[in-house]
Fold this protein.
Amino acid sequence: MPSRSLKGWLYLIPAIAFLGVFVVYPLFDVFVYSFEEGYNSASQTFYGTGIYNYSYVLRDPYFMQALKNTFILVIVTVPLSTAIALLISVALSSIKKLQELFQTVYFLPYVTNTLAVGLVFMILFQKTPYTEGFVNQLIHLFGGPSVDFIDGPYWAKMTVMCIYTIWIVMPFKILVLTSALASVNPDYYKAAKVDGANEWRIFTRITLPVISPMIFYLIITGFIGAFKAYSDVVAIFGTNLNSAGMNTIVGYVYDMLYGNGGGYPSYASAAALILFAIVLTITTINLLVRRKGVSA
Amino acid sequence: MKIVLEHITKRYPNRDKKRGGEVVAVDDFHLTIPDGKLIGLLGPSGCGKSTTLNMICGLESPTEGHIYFGEEDVTDLSPELRGVGMVFQSYALYPHMTVRQNIMFPLENRKKDERLPKEEMLRKAEEAARLVQIENLLDRKPSEMSGGQQQRVAIARALVKEPRVLLLDEPLSNLDARLRLSTREEIRRIQRETGITTVFVTHDQEEAMSISDEIVVMEAGIIRQKGHPQDIYDEPANLFVAKFLGTPPINVFEARAEAGRVYIGDACVMRAPDVADGPLTVGVRPEGFVPCADGPLACELVAVERMGRDTSIVARHRAHERGQIRTIVGSDVRFDATADEVRFSFKPAKTHLFDAATGERIHADATPVTGNGAAHA
């Protein structure tokens, strides 16, 4: 037995080494930086330790704005995108003709570059001196006033951001949910039909519970993904996110490291750890809720 | 509830679209199932037996023909309105529900005005569980149960709504051999206790024979024979049925009739005065062989397997369909097990003649030949 477990460890060494160097060590490092005041990565110096970095970040209005933006993004897009993806997946699996065509169409956004999609969204929503933009033309059609979605009011920008995020995360969710739906034993449906369950009851009492592990997986990864939003925001609003009021937590971390007012790895580390704590808390809550749901 | 299947035909469009056309799964199926009986639909896979079951259930509708439950025409009725209980081969127990919830599910599906009070539903669920003897497992999930227990839950779920007809699709095929024996007795007991007309589908002839009041043997969508299991075994209507029923299977020989005698190779094995001259197929049940020193059929002795109660003689003959004969004789039958050759005569009741071309049974008086058959040739 000892030689066998030795062999096992031997096989694990490459993965452990890489994870150790590129994940565990940096994580530990960030943790340390976040408590070192005024750490300078060039000179490797700092002038004190304590929780000052955290208190600075938490009092920084830019960080609070980023926190608010991220939370809105998470709370709006995760449930909405999962629900819409479920709706589309159910529709997809109930049609026979052209099913594969539609599946391909719905999957297209997944293979499209984020920045390219962002550009298209900008063109759709942007209002310039020369053009109103496609979406504003639509609004005019229904008799509404034009809105500047890219440089206009906060709610308009947030709306664009949410639509964009939902749209970009949808394909993966549809992919996962359609395969989850396809893997449900068809005998369940037959049995339910013989037992007199109507379509709605079949969906709520059988389909949903059976695929719930997949839905749960999508919600957890959706939360994590939305908390880490950054490139999507850049794709639409550019890199000067603080002045646009559209920064996210990851964007704030990036700005602290490399942005205009960059060169503050200590603040960046503190912000990153705050994000880590938030994601950890929410994932734990999710898991606890889930476990309770399963045993009930 | 008497079930009448009136000239039912089910056609599917061919799956291979290029070839087009249709596949006939069930072809002019006509059957009356008497009230309160247990009927086995028996046949090899793809013979249309499951399609027939699904049509009785209402999951599929016949292309032609009518289905009656009693006097009521249910052909166009959807399954939930037919009052049928169905047990699926996979059991189809909902994995996220407990046994109690599974059994109660059909009751909870009823429309508001027909729905029973909660306590009544619970009572009925427990009653159904008691009938299949799983009342102590009501709070388990299906995944925490053995295959046999899951099977019982599936039966309880089918019975809880007091169906007019109980349908079982391959009820035993997912169980191990030992469980199969006890479960089939259990199905028989439950059927007797409830008196519900029951139809079950199987490809296992032993299963069908052991518990059915009547079996229906199907091949390629057609009924090849129906009747009491023993009658079908004793008097098969055709070679297909003869071969499908019985383990070890019937021994099939190429033969010919000449001047009122039946020959296998050069050996005259039977006198059958009414049989026209020409090629024949002779089927002999394993228990239809009598080893005797002056028997007409000489075979090369391959092996003798003693199993206590009876003895299996394995022998070789060129005219045999598979080359190898397997017989079963009583262990008290004496013969020379060390010889290279063994000679058999046939018991007439266990020997059947079939048309060589159509496989249909030839009913003719046949008497065994004793003495060396070759001498007559």
Summary: Residues 177-194 of chain B form the longest helix (18 residues). Confidence is low (pLDDT under 50) at residues 373-377 of chain B.
